[in-house]
């Protein structure tokens, strides 16, 4: 297995006409009993597993390309290729294939696949028609040659015969010499014929012809022929562009002449395919598949040769990070790496993994950290492209580097913070670079790609790092644009005052929208970390300031953020919203929008519809208790009436549950006393007196009277807390909670509405009943205990002292 002559890579052609690497191994040809014939076997060099088992069929067309490639098709739309490390190994296997098929190894292709109709026509042809006779290579015969080349394109057999004829006796080189003669004589007719000939030869799709045409001696003449398209009045100047305009820049001198030649050839062939040749029609799209393969394998070879030259890459990195390097030189170095990484995309995952590991070992990420912070826009843009290649290929590699950065350094120089700052400071009015960087940040913080089996703690470690060192940098523009000057002096103000700082600049609004999109992503995917951050920074309150923005898309982003929070159905979030009275800016926006039927209106309605459908009880009670008077007039949707219905149902259910618990539940200790006394009673006492159940109103008039009196006072208070009605007939709310109130820092508990206060009052009332000792007959009587079954009983007790103060009128009203 150590024989390098037989070392190969196995490729298959995918639906996009790109070659996929199936692995590296060693090839052999042997008889396989199961397939009943000589077969090609490739076993992986890593574990010896079978990568390929293909019987050499007598009717399969095998093609030899570039001395180290063998390509064939095993079934419709299933192409295979073996890329040999050494030419000797390719020749050895090629001879074996030709031996099985009875072909001459000197041929570049054993046979063409032909359909039945083509085969029938072939059999009917006389023997003399099997060969294609080319006219003499003369100026007077160019038209005849052009007609011949054009006529064979529809027949696979005749294309192959023509290709063999063109390769014999150096026919292609003679044709290209005629081009120089025609151009010297300014023979336009002959030049137009040569255009048709060269274009047709390219469509023959034969690698052996490409090797001749794209050699250093011939390629510029091929480009020259393709300049004289008969459809054009004046010829194109492609050669002038390739020789004078396009400059080959060597950031570090390349000493390997073979590598230099390969780079020049690949660039020129790519230019021919992308620029010179017209876009192939649906009938011609497969004619240039070999040309695509030619470019592909050239790029693979270039990347491999550069990757193996460690001295070259080390020198490039040294100059890139050297402070003494001139800006123009550094720009060329960064552009080289950008092109280098673009070429690497032709590699398959295994090879690309080795490629990026090589770059990582040489220090690509520390180098990017330096160049991304530079003032040169071109350098930063190229560095961003390189960074995107790295993140797309291996986000874990980038995360690992970031977490290994020295923590004693300033947070500003951390790679992710450099990326965030570049996103924030993007000078493009359309924020094209910021959008690209935001996508890269999302990839880095996405938990879905942190589930690597090698590092079980990557998710926890990286997210802790990100929220500790990077989140404040990301949210800085958002917090800076939603704070009032007095806020910095420690004075808490309502949200409406903060809207003075709202950004009216469209570019700033776009940037805030991008940040909100990323934060919304965090709410969906980072449950614990983002929740802690939102609570500590009172982030939702700050974001809802943007509901007042004149840019509707920004208001929608703020609303979407709140919608994602509510969508988590987390009671911590719900209590935070209730305490901060954070529905007010949303409802004010709905009322300000009036009867306009637009996206903002629909999004707000959908928010309340979600709360209704999911039956989020705490939020429903809060909305109905505080805002229903303003919302009940909205009748074009049934959302708010539905919320009211849910509220009433829950209220009835609580009342019923309360009554049942009062009537039927007894104190456990009293039950034990009853049972003990029953066992000690004499049989003569079977006719004990019945115990009468007294009504609470009659037994304890004092406690019940206090309860009813408190309830009436509460109801009268509630009537004073309705929203004010504007002259236009709509209702308006004002903000009455500061950031401190949202966190429960100050403020006395306000009297809550009947729906929330009544159960506590009733519960206190029944507990007071249990504390009294009524005078009853001697027979033991069980004591009543008021047990009220509330879903969040413990939470409500904790929140009693944190109720929001009574709402004040809007400032300035």
TrEMBL record:
InterPro entries of this UniProt entry? ARM-like, ARM-type_fold, EVH1_PP4R3, P4R3-like_central_dom, PH-like_dom_sf, PP4R3-like
Sequence ranges assigned to domain Serine/threonine-protein phosphatase 4 regulatory subunit 3-like central in this UniProt record: 144-649
UniProt domain PP4R3 EVH1-like: residue ranges: 5-101
| A GO BP annotation | DNA damage response
Q: Where is the composition biased (Basic and acidic residues)?
A: 708-721
Q: Which residues form a coiled coil?
A: none
What are the Acidic residues biased-composition ranges? 676-689, 790-802
Q: Name one GO cellular component term.
A: nucleoplasm
Q: Where is this region: Disordered?
A: 676-733, 786-813
- What one GO molecular function would you report for this record? protein phosphatase activator activity
| Regions of compositional bias (Polar residues) in chain numbering | 722-733
Tell me the superkingdom of the source: Eukaryota
What function is annotated for this protein? Regulatory subunit of serine/threonine-protein phosphatase 4.
Task: Family membership, please give it.
Answer: Belongs to the SMEK family.
Query: What is the recorded name of this protein?
Result: Serine/threonine-protein phosphatase 4 regulatory subunit 3
Species in which this protein is naturally found: Oncorhynchus kisutch
Native organism taxonomy? Eukaryota, Metazoa, Chordata, Craniata, Vertebrata
């Amino acid at each position: 297995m150590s024989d390098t002559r037989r070392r190969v890579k196995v490729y298959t052609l995918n639906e996009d006409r790109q070659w996929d690497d199936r692995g590296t191994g060693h090839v052999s040809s042997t008889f396989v009993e199961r397939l009943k014939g000589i077969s090609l076997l490739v076993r992986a060099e890593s574990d010896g597993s079978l990568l390929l088992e293909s019987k050499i069929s007598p009717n399969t067309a095998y093609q030899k390309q570039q001395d180290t490639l063998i390509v064939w098709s095993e079934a419709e739309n299933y192409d295979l290729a073996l890329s040999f490390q050494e030419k000797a190994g390719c020749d050895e296997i090629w001879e074996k294939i030709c031996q099985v098929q009875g072909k001459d190894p000197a041929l570049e292709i054993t046979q063409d696949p032909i359909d039945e109709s083509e085969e029938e026509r072939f059999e009917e042809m006389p023997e003399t028609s099997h060969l294609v006779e080319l006219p003499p290579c003369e100026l007077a015969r160019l038209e005849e040659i052009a007609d011949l080349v054009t006529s064979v394109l529809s027949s696979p057999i005749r294309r192959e015969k023509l290709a063999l004829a063109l390769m014999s006796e150096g026919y292609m080189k003679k044709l290209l010499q005629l081009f120089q003669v025609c151009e010297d004589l300014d023979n336009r007719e002959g030049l137009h014929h040569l255009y048709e000939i060269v274009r047709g030869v390219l469509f023959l799709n034969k690698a052996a012809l490409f090797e001749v045409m794209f050699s250093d001696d011939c390629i510029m003449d091929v480009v020259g022929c393709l300049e004289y398209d008969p459809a054009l009045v004046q010829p194109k100047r492609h050669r002038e562009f390739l020789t004078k305009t396009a400059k080959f820049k060597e950031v570090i001198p390349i000493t390997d002449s073979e590598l230099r030649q390969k780079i020049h050839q690949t660039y020129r062939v790519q230019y021919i395919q992308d620029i010179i040749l017209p876009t192939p029609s649906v009938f011609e799209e497969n004619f240039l598949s070999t040309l695509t393969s030619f470019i592909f394998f050239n790029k693979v070879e270039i990347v491999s040769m550069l990757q193996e030259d460690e001295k070259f890459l080390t020198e490039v990195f040294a100059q890139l990070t050297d402070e003494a390097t001139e800006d123009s030189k550094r720009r060329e170095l960064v552009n080289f790496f950008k092109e280098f990484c673009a070429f690497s995309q032709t590699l398959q995952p295994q090879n690309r993994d080795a490629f990026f590991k090589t770059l990582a070992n040489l220090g690509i990420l520390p180098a990017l950290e330096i160049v991304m912070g530079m003032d040169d826009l071109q350098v930063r843009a190229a560095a961003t492209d390189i960074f995107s290649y790295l993140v797309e290929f291996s986000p874990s590699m980038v995360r690992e580097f970031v977490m290994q950065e020295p923590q004693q350094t300033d947070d500003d120089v951390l790679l992710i913070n450099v990326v965030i700052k570049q996103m924030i400071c993007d000078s493009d009015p359309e924020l094209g670079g910021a959008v690209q960087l935001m996508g890269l940040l999302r990839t880095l913080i996405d938990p879905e790609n942190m589930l690597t089996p090698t590092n079980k703690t990557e998710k926890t470690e990286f997210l802790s790092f990100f929220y500790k060192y990077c989140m404040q940098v990301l949210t800085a523009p958002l917090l800076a644009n939603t704070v009032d000057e007095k806020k910095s002096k420690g004075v808490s103000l309502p949200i409406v005052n903060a809207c003075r700082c709202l950004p009216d600049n469209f570019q700033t609004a776009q940037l805030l929208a991008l940040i909100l999109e990323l934060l919304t992503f965090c709410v969906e995917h980072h449950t614990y970390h983002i929740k802690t951050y939102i609570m500590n920074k009172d982030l939702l309150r700050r974001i809802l300031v943007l509901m007042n923005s004149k840019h509707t898309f920004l208001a929608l982003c703020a609303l979407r953020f709140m919608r994602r929070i509510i969508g988590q159905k987390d009671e911590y979030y719900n209590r935070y919203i209730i305490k901060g009275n954070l529905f007010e800016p949303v409802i004010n926006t709905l009322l300000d929008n009036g009867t306009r039927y637009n996206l903002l209106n629909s999004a707000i309605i959908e928010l309340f519809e979600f709360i209704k459908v999911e039956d989020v009880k705490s939020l429903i009670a809060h909305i109905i208790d505080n805002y229903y008077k303003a919302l009940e007039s909205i009748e074009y949707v049934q959302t708010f009436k539905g919320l009211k219905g849910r509220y009433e149902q829950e209220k009835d259910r609580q009342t019923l549950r309360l009554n049942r618990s009062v009537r039927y539940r007894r104190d456990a200790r009293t039950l034990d006393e009853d049972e003990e006394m029953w066992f000690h009673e004499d049989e003569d006492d079977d006719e004990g007196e019945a115990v009468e159940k007294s009504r609470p109103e009659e037994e304890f008039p004092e406690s019940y009277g206090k309860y009813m009196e408190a309830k009436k006072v509460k109801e009268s208070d509630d009537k004073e807390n309705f929203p004010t009605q504007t002259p236009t007939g709509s209702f308006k709310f004002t903000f009455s909670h500061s950031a401190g109130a949202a966190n429960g820092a100050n403020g006395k508990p306000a009297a809550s509405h009947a729906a929330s206060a009544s159960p506590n009052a009733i519960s206190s009332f029944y507990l007071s009943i249990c504390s009294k000792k009524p005078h009853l007959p001697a027979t033991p009587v069980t004591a009543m205990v008021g047990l009220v079954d509330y879903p969040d009983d413990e939470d409500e007790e904790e929140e009693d002292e944190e109720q929001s103060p009574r709402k004040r009128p809007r400032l300035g009203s």
